[in-house]
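Hello forum,

I keep getting stuck at the same step: I have a sequence, I want structure tokens, and every attempt I make locally crashes halfway through. Rather than fight my setup again tonight, could one of you with a working pipeline run this one for me? It's a single chain of 565 residues.
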Amino acid sequence: MTVTKITNLEFGKMVQAAAAKLNAQAEFINSLNVFPVPDGDTGTNMSMSMASGAKYERDATSTSVGDLAQALAKGLLMGARGNSGVILSQIFRGFAKGCTDKQELSAKDFVDAYANGAQTAYKAVMKPTEGTILTVVRESAQAGLNEVKAGNEDLVDIMEKIYDVSETALQKTPDLLPVLKEVGVVDSGGQGLVFVLQAFYESLSGKVVENDLAKPDNAQIDEMINAKHHQSAQGKLNPDDIKYGYCTQMMVRIGRGKQVTQKFDYDTFYNYLAKLGDSLLVINDDEVVKVHVHTEFPGKVLSWGQQFGDLQTVKVDNMRWQQEEIMEKDEGEPTPLEKAKEAEKPALDTAVIAVASGDGIAKLLESLGVTHVINGGQTMNPSIQEIAEAINESGAKQALVLPDNGNVFMAADQAAEVADIPTKVVHAKTIAQGMSAMLEFNPEADLEENQANMEGNLDTVKSGEVTNAVRDTTIDGQTIKKDDFMGIVDGKIVNTAADVKTAAIEMVKQMLDEDSEIVTILYGVDGDKETAEAIKEAILDVDDELDVQIYDGGQPVYPYLISVE
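Reply #2:
Ran it on my machine without issues. Output:
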């Protein structure tokens, strides 16, 4: 098979195939996390970022590849999560700039655009590190340029070469980044990009069949269904204008039940339902098929499903009634007292927006002057769009952002660039650093002064985290067994133990020095106050002049977060 031009049809298939590939491989990418902690989320971040890009591309109506590439880049940027997602967005931002005004792409157009993406990604990183996704994109892009320079115009052949070289570059990452070699893994972000390029090759070569793309899990299916539903029946739409009034959902156990009369065939099943309404979504594996459709005939939908299997779940909502409720709620006028209270609120000059998980931690940050808390951090890095929306909806004249997580830095920086108001990022890597930074916040100071003073206070605190290992490994000179508890200080594993209390106590002992004055213990959903009290007593046995404070942080993943100042 030879392909010399990428049209809008080929490009769309490539993008959707890449999104499906990352979705299917997210957990594998997560497993490559260097630290054996239960928060490895590179695969999740890249998958969700690409899914956002794919949605923007899919919703675009242009037939120009240049326009579709711009839509992909915009969706990736707004949906980018974590550093890996942001770098992926920068690759396709550069790619899109290289496709400007292109109706279709020749081999030279494609490789030039991809090479531009590699350059853009390098520029986006303050200190580019080899042995990462950057190495993979640079070497694979050079492979494409070399092929075109040699006279190759077959995009299938070129894409295969780009994919092969990306895999070779990925396998070299442990030789370039010692920590990867120590743990025995390749770079997770690089692996994610390899999967994208593999999907591009498989799509161009005809090896991907649309219905064979990896299916989302149930949680993702529910998100897709909710998105489909809200596309049709929200806002100020007049209920009488809703053409199909019943949002009908069902899950069918294929081949099971007393009324089965047909063997499941996707096209047959889908085509009948397509005649009954719109906003149709049909997703299946070998055992079940899940359906969402807006229709006037929910009974026909359910009866059709029963011909292929029994109904495991059924849900029918009257969207016209729902819309009436929404409009009645929206039309409600505030009372004179509510208006008076609103008028009394002073205009917010500087919003301070922090990223944190856990109700207790959010309350602590707010008590220190944080005005808005975005729920996120470990395992659920917020997207650029989520951070930008928090900034824009703050009602303030300007804003400061505290990522409180190193993996949120790049998303926060990009959000600051696209926000509607002047915004600076205070690069706090941990919750403890964020709390320490807030001690230097001055509502009367300008953004630059606050940023400088707050970042200047970050090094006054040591941040400790206690969590369990999810696999056997050796790192930072520590031999770690699965399910052991680890003490992690400022990103470095310093000790392990069979039980969480011992791990926490030994970790804090290593954090203390002659200048230590305050120890703060935040226990999470997997921790408890009793154990925190025992840790406190052990700390006071070392130095009874320390001020040890305990709070219910409510954070996930880490049973105990402990800081020393």
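The chain has 21 helices and 16 strands. If your local run keeps crashing, start a new thread with the error log.
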